Automatic annotation (TrEMBL):
Stretches that traverse the bilayer: 53-74, 151-174, 186-205, 281-302, 373-394, 400-420
Organism for this UniProt entry: freshwater metagenome
Topological category with respect to the lipid bilayer: Multi-pass membrane protein
Entry keyword set: Cell membrane, Membrane, Transmembrane, Transmembrane helix
Cellular component, GO annotation: plasma membrane
Lineage: unclassified sequences, metagenomes, ecological metagenomes
GO-annotated molecular function: transmembrane transporter activity
Protein name per the record: Unannotated protein
Length: 429
């Protein structure tokens, strides 16, 4: 069985149409990792700037706020204009935007000015990821959705981590030859080049290859964005199992944000000397790498689990298993405990994510796909921001506390028992 799944994985990687979409997605997400490592280094791991839970949580909120702001309009755009063209111009705009970010980082500019420019960058990113998710089902048959989602989402997550590692490595190489802020600006320029490459790769897709279909195209308007969100919510009320799966995925991502915030403070202020932020950044990078390995391994298990137990039972099992992982960090705030928690929470979380993505995609035709994924994105990002802010209120500057991992474990368990209860979360819902 494992051999068959491996063959399916590698077979889809060679799929002539899917591979072109993956090239765009993975190039952009590897670049995301480089860009995010530069921002983390500049804002949270700079010798001149002391990291604390609230500032880090606000950083998460700044990164994700535009996702929720543009969310109501993403579906409108993606269901009415060429998604290939949207990907091209969005990546091009993001590349140009990062040139401005690099200038601000080079000059050491912080505050509202930098925040506004970064908000634009991440707002554009939301459109790109939604377009990639909405277009994927049009390239392959429905039987391959689970595996294709596992490849696309997991490969992207791993490449974000690898991109972050590349960013940390490049910064370490140029650290001695440049002022810290100047080194970070070089990373941002590297990211700008990466997004330009992603824009050029969209040229390998035809104009309407990833949608929308001809009968859907109409004039979009400001008000239509909210109407489409309403239609997406109404659709999920009809397919209640997909809606409950989205809630489970959102809560899991919110918990991951809380644990990530904990890891950041532990590595920055406890496991390493606070006066040596470079060591903290490297330690945090190692923790993220371990989580990335968990994500990668989880993708291989998801298709097997779904095939053996079904989508609904497998998502519920993954949520139960996820509830056990943070207990390790709650019992002991050490680097080994952090590594174990990072691996298994990411491992089971990836099973939840890729399985639920395929569940949602299997319920909707292309007419509603952009609308439903816009709702999906807003719900998940609201949970991520909430998870970060709640953790910030509970975390000391050192990051040493059992409260946050216990809170995350309790949230996962509650979702598994209540939201995913068999009477509501089933294929016939």
């Amino acid at each position: 069985m494992a051999t068959l799944f491996l063959m399916s994985f590698f077979g889809l990687l060679r799929h002539p149409r899917l591979s072109r979409l993956l090239a765009v997605r993975w190039t952009g997400q590897a670049t995301d990792g480089v860009f995010q490592s530069a921002l983390a280094s500049f804002v949270l791991f700079s010798p001149e700037r002391q990291a604390n839970a609230l500032s880090a949580a606000i950083g998460f909120a700044v990164v994700l706020m535009p996702y929720s702001i543009v969310g109501p309009f993403v579906g409108t755009i993606l269901d009415r204009v060429s998604r290939q063209r949207a990907l091209f111009f969005a990546n091009l705009a993001r590349s140009a935007n990062l040139l401005v970010v690099a200038l601000f980082v080079f000059s050491g500019t912080t505050g509202v000015t930098l925040t506004a420019v970064v908000l634009v960058a991440f707002g554009i990113n939301r459109l790109i990821l939604a377009a990639l998710s909405a277009g994927l089902p049009l390239l392959i048959d429905s039987k391959s959705l689970i595996t294709a989602n596992a490849i696309a989402v997991t490969g992207g997550s791993v490449l974000v981590v690898l991109g972050g590692g590349i960013g940390v490595g490049v910064r370490a190489l140029i650290d001695g030859a440049a002022i810290a802020d100047h080194a970070d600006s070089i990373l941002v320029l590297l990211a700008s080049a990466g997004y330009l490459t992603a824009a050029l790769l969209t040229g390998r897709l035809t104009k309407y290859e990833i949608g929308p279909q001809k009968h859907e195209k109409a004039a979009a308007s400001f008000a239509q964005g909210f109407i489409d969100m309403k239609e997406g919510i109404a659709f999920l009320r009809t397919h209640i199992d997909a809606g409950r799966g989205i809630i489970a995925t959102a809560v899991h991502r919110g918990g991951l944000t809380a644990l990530t915030l904990t890891a950041l403070l532990l590595e920055r202020n406890t496991f390493n000397d606070p006066s040596s932020p470079e060591d903290g950044l490297q330690g945090f990078g190692i923790a993220l790498t371990i989580a990335g390995i968990g994500v990668f391994c989880g993708a291989f298990l998801a298709p097997y689990g779904v095939n053996r137990f079904g989508r609904h039972r497998w998502i519920k099992f993954a949520m139960f298993a996820s509830a056990c992982s943070p207990l390790v960090l709650a019992a002991s705030q050490t680097q080994v405990a952090l590594a174990v928690t990072a691996f298994f929470t990411a491992f089971f979380g990836q099973n939840v994510k890729v399985t639920n993505d395929a569940l949602v995609q299997s319920k909707i035709d292309d007419y509603f796909r952009g609308r439903v994924f816009a709702v999906y994105d807003v719900v998940v990002n609201f949970a991520i921001v909430s998870g970060g802010l709640i953790a910030a209120l509970m975390l000391p500057t050192t990051g040493v506390t059992a409260k946050v991992p216990l809170f995350v474990a309790a949230a996962y368990l509650l979702v598994a028992l209540v939201v995913l209860r068999p009477s509501k979360f089933k294929a016939s819902a």
